[in-house]
Prior knowledge:
It is a single-pass membrane protein. The chain is mainly alpha-helical.
Amino acid sequence: MDxxxxxxxxxxxxxxxxxxxLNRLRQQRKKKLNSLPPGDMGWPLIGCWGNRLDFxxxxxxxxxxWSFLRAFKSQNPESxxxxxxxRYGPAGIYRTNLFWKPSIIVCTPELYxxxxxxxxxxxxxxxxxxxxxxxxxxxxxKRRILFFPxxxxxxxxxxxxxxxxxxxxxxxxxxxEKYYTYVFAGLFCTPINVPGFAYxxxxxxxxxxxxxxxxxxxxxxxxxxxxxRGLVDFIREAEDENGEKLDDERVAIILLMFLxxxxxxxxxxxxxxxxxxxxxxQVLQMAKEEQExxxxxxxxxQKGLTLNEIKQMKYLSKVxxxxxRIRTNIFTLFREARKDSYLDGYFIPKGxxxxxxxxxxxxxxxxxxxxxQFLPSRWDDFIPKGGAFLPFGAGTRxxxxxxxxxxxxxxxxxxxxxNYRLEQLNPGGPVNYLPSSPxxxxxxxxxxxxxx
Length: 452
Ligand code: HEM
């Protein structure tokens, strides 16, 4: 994966962006240091004892990565930012050192938007490559594929690339996908750990997956640093104050968590959006016109999509919202009452689960008229009242991959809408809502046809 892209993803996940030209900064350092936002550059390892703000030695600075990982591991990622707020005031902008990069963290909506609208230079190359290659392969087959599982494969590849880096061998990714599929199936079956049962297969597959990731990490140690590194490289190199690192098994578990939470949901949403677009030719036409306009405005020297272009896809984002509403990925979210409490005047005993039934809210005719109708235009100037549209959850457990998911889905739809057509075998066929999320019962056999 491009290092720019990796950093973009990190920026989306933690709301940070890295400082730019180091030489220029060094020259102007004295003058500018005083105007840096409040914050600290974390713990030095070697080489920068004198001045924590010496950017020239940031490579040797483990920075704040350990507190970042600790917050993440303790299921309370916000505590990382809360800590800054407590120590340096509520400005919402702080300096730090994360993943060997001196960084500015921004955490107010205004600043967040400002940062994200300033970045024409980001290239989304590797995700685009994965998507384009898959479409070419499908269309060249000239026969039906099972559309939903195939889109999930793309999603898996994108996530592995972000996690492991763009130089990871395709065959390694393919074998890991096979094991991952068993692990995922194991989440929804009876835990009978006896050979021949799905749960036992999942346990074994998990071991193989961990071994596979350990193999990749070992190979990296042998081959030395590589510029196309992935998130995993940063995580496993991080050390705490006592010099402790996460072992490979824990790194593999973090990867598994990302895959389990992100792979099917992004893939499913991209696949349903494609199906809905093809079932609604007028909507498809409007989406296509928007994408063509974006290409027309593009300078001839530019290759591939930029983040700014994705932000211009206003109509497409309504298509994605409408898909997330009508095909809610996780129909209910769970919480547990930690103490006896009251909700809307009703008593909730300690230990009882509270299920937030998302799909009921998303299909409530009082909020969304004709809720079963796929109608992206309902999002024109429509801001749902609090709690009425939360496909990525809310609060401390909300989805950390929401921006990445929207990015991936937008790239997928951009290339599909402009270049391909979906010919389904059974349009409008039955849908399975269990074990967890809506999928076409027949996995949507379809031909992907290249538009001449
Ligand atoms: C359309 C795509 C996606 C949807 C609809 C979605 C939805 C959600 C929802 C509703 C939650 C909250 C669960 C709860 O409150 O109990 C959640 C959590 C989470 N999501 Fe996503 N997600 C998507 C994509 C992704 C991706 C691509 C990633 C990985 C990069 C990801 C990583 C996570 C993680 C790690 C959590 C757990 C956060 C925590 O417990 O602190 N998700 N997601």
